[in-house]
């Protein structure tokens, strides 16, 4: 098993602590305590990496692949 290190960011917002991983968009979570936010974020990261791996390997069930284009303002 390979270990990778990512950057977790935690921010207090009201009574919640929101958390996200800088390097991977879409990996975010929250918790009432820093400990809870850390645990939730680790779980979210593991799930996103697992899903990405399945999609990349072609093993994703009921997955459809197609090109997508967007316009980006200069």
TrEMBL record:
Alphabetical list of InterPro entries matching this protein: TA_system_antitoxin, TTHA1013/TTHA0281-like
Alphabetized SUPFAM superfamilies for the sequence: TTHA1013/TTHA0281-like
Gene3D superfamilies registered for this protein in UniProt: 3.30.160.250
Protein name: HicB family protein
Organism: Candidatus Jorgensenbacteria bacterium GWA1_54_12
């Amino acid at each position: 098993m390979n270990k990778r290190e990512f950057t977790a960011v935690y921010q207090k917002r009201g009574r919640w602590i929101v958390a996200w991983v800088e390097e991977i968009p879409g990996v975010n979570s929250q918790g009432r305590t820093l400990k809870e936010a850390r645990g939730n974020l680790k779980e979210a990261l593991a799930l996103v990496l697992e899903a990405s791996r399945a999609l990349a390997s072609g093993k994703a069930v009921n997955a459809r692949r197609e090109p997508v284009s967007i316009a980006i303002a200069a």
